[in-house]
Amino acid sequence: MTDRRARYKECLALYNEYKERGLSISMARGKPNGEQLKLSNGLLSVLAGEGCVAADGTDCRNYGGTDGLPEMRRLFAEIMAVNEKNVIVGGNSSLGMMYDCIADMRGIWPKNAVFICPVPGYDRHHNICEHFGIQMVTVNMTHEGPDMDAVEALAVSDASVVGMWCVPVFSNPQGYIYSDETVRRLACLKTAAKEKFRLFWDNAYCVHHFRGNPPAPVNFLKKCADAGNEDMPIIFTSFSKISFAGAGVAALAASEKNLEQIRKRLFVQTVGPDKLNQLRHAKYFKDIEGINAHMRKHAEIIRPKFELAHFILDENLRGKGVARWHCPDGGYFMSLNTLQGRAKRTVRLCAEAGIEFTAAGSTYPYKNDPNDANIRIAPTYPTLSELSDAMRIFCLAVEVAALES
Amino acid sequence: MTDRRARYKECLALYNEYKERGLSISMARGKPNGEQLKLSNGLLSVLAGEGCVAADGTDCRNYGGTDGLPEMRRLFAEIMAVNEKNVIVGGNSSLGMMYDCIADMRGIWPKNAVFICPVPGYDRHHNICEHFGIQMVTVNMTHEGPDMDAVEALAVSDASVVGMWCVPVFSNPQGYIYSDETVRRLACLKTAAKEKFRLFWDNAYCVHHFRGNPPAPVNFLKKCADAGNEDMPIIFTSFSKISFAGAGVAALAASEKNLEQIRKRLFVQTVGPDKLNQLRHAKYFKDIEGINAHMRKHAEIIRPKFELAHFILDENLRGKGVARWHCPDGGYFMSLNTLQGRAKRTVRLCAEAGIEFTAAGSTYPYKNDPNDANIRIAPTYPTLSELSDAMRIFCLAVEVAALES
What we know:
Two copies of one chain form a homodimer.
Chain A: H1 3-20, E1 25-27, H2 34-38, H3 46-50, H4 70-80, E2 87-89, H5 94-105, E3 114-119, H6 123-131, E4 135-142, E5 145-146, H7 148-157, E6 161-166, H8 180-187, E7 198-202, H9 220-226, E8 233-238, E9 250-253, H10 256-269, H11 275-285, H12 288-317, E10 323-326, E11 334-338, H13 343-352, E12 355-357, E13 374-377, H14 384-404
Parallel strand pairs in A: 1-12, 3-4, 3-6, 6-7, 7-8
Antiparallel strand pairs in A: 2-9, 4-5, 8-9, 10-11, 11-13
Helix pairs in contact in A: 1-14, 8-9, 12-14, 13-14
C-alpha cells in the first residue's frame, strides 16, 4: 500500500467519523451571526427616544425627498470618501440600486453588451448580468486586484464592452484589496465604449477590516474625474453588514450627470426612500467615528472566526499541495482553490457530512468555473465550535477529493 | 354695470383681501398630517419591546426571504381580500412595485404598447408609462368607474393595448368606487393582447373610508380567474396612508404564474425586503380588526376636513354653474371641474394668493387636460383653519376665472 493510498484511507476514516455525527452547519452565505446583530439593537428604539425629525426639520414619517436625508448623505460621503453632493441614499438594498442602474443603461447599451467580470467574483453581480442578457467575460484576480493588462485590452478594443464589476476592498470572495496601482489604472481606463462605459464599484466592505490597519480611503470619483472619466464609476455601499442584514440603508455615489439620470428615474419609480430607517441609522451611528467604533466590535467577533478557519486550513492542508487559499484582513469571505476538477467533489463531500458550502462554480459567471477549483468560505455565521467542525471536515473533504483523482 | 361685472369686482376684491394676508398653504399632495402620523408612533418602539423574531422563527435582523413574512402576507391577504399564497410583501413603495412589474413586462410587450388610462387619474401612474415610452389612451371616469364601453372597445380591438390603470376604491382624484358591474366587466375583459394584457389594480385606499359603510371587499383575483383571466390582474396596496407615508410596507397580489415571474426578478434584484419594518407592522396592527380600528382614528381626523371642504364648495359655488365636484366617502382626494379652459387660470390665481394646488392638467396623461378643467384637491395635510382659508380662496379663484372668460 502506497503512502498516498494509506493517507486516503486515513482521511476517509476520519471523514466518516465526522459524517456519523449528523452535523448541520451552513458555511454558504455571508450572514452576520446573532452576536453581531445584537450590536445594533439600539437602532430598534432610537427613534422612540429621539423623535422623527431630521436635522433640516423634515418629518421623516411623511412623504418627500429623493436624495435621502442630509445627515445620511454626509455619513455615506465619509464612508465612501466622496463629496456628499455626489451621494444618493436609498432603501435597504445596494444590490437593488445596482440592478436599477443597469436597467437604466440598457436603453443606451448595444444588444450584445459585455461586462468584464474579475473571477472568482460575487454571484449576485453575475446574476444581474445574466438576467439582462449581458454577456460576461472574465479576467483573473491577483493579490493586487483584477489583471489590469487583460482589463485594459478588453475595454479598449471593443465598444460592446460597456461595464465592469469591482469589489475594490476585501473582494468577494478572496478578501483582496485592490492596490493603488490597480485603482489608478482603473480610474484611467481607456474604453472603446467611451461615455457608455460604467464601472460598478461595489464598496460593500470598505469599513469591514477586522485586523491590521484599515485600508486607506480612496475618493474614486475624484480619481476618475481627474483622469477624464468623471461619469465612468458608480459607487455602492450599504449598512447591511454594519447594522442589520437586509434591514440597513444603501447608497450610491456618482457624477452630477449620472445622478441627474438616476434622479429622473427615482422620481418616477418611487415617492421616496424610507427616511425613518435612514434617520434611525444617522441618529445611532452619528459619524464615521461612530461607524468605526461599531466596526471594531464586529471585528472582535469576526476575527477569531477567520483566524480559526485559517489555523485549521494551515494545520491540515499546508504543504500537501492539494489547495491554495488566502486569509484576508477584512470582509466576509475566504477563497480556496482545490486541485483542478476537485471543487464540486469537495463541496459534495461536505454536504454529505452535513456542511453546506456555496455551490462550487458559483463564484464564476453562469456558475461555470472552468477549472472546477474555487470554493467560497463564509466563516461568520456559525459559532466557533461549529466552525471548527465544519473546517476540519472541509479540510478532510479537500484532501479526500484530491487523493481520489 | 351688469350683475356679472359687479360680481366679478366683488370676487376680485375679496380675493385680493386674502392675497394680502400672505398665506402659504399646500393643497398639492395627498400627505397625512401630523395628527394622523402620531397615531402610528407606537411602531417606533414595538420591536424594542417585542423582539425581532417572526412567528416562523425567522430573525428579521438577518438576510433571507423573498415573499415577505408569513404574518404580513396574511395581513395583506385580509386587506386585499385575496388568498395569502398570492401575496408578495415588499419594501416601502407600492409605486416601486408597479414600476418593476411594468419594467418586467416590457420585454414581451410590443414597442408601440398602449395603456388605457381612466381620466382624470393618478399622475404617478401616467409618469411610469411616459418613462417607459408606453402610449396612453384615455377613457372617461363615471360615478361607476371607467366608461366600460370605451374600455372594452379599446381592449378587444387592438393587440398593442397591453394594460390599464385602475384605482378601484376611492379613485384618485375623484374618490369614486367602481360599481359591482364595472368590476365584473373588468374581470371578464376580452383583450386582443390576450396573455400579455395586465390590469394594474392599485388598491391604495381599500381600507380608507372615512364615513358611511366600508366598501365591500372584492377578491378581484378570483373574479378574474373565474372569468378565465387569472393572469390579467396585479393588485397593489401599501401602508403609506395607514402608518407612515413613505415608511410603510407595500405588497402585491397576483396569480401563481405571475408570482413566479416576479420572484425570478426579485431573486436577482435584491437579497430580500426589509423584514424588520414588516415585523414592526405585523406586531403593531396584528390583523384586519387592528387595521380597521386604526383607520377609524384616521377617519375622525380626515372626515371633518373633507366635510369642511365640501361645505365651503357648497356654500360658495353651488348653483352658480361655474364648477362640478364630488365629495367622496374615503380616500385622500376630491376632484373639481371648472368651466372649460379655466383650471390653469384658477390654480394660478390660488398660487398668487399663496395656496398651492397640484398643477392643472396633472391628472391627465402627459399633463395635458384637453378641457383644462380638472383640479385635484388634497384636503388632508393642512389644519382645519388653513383648509378653511385655502378653500375660500379656491372658490373665489374658480369664480374669478369663470367670470373672466
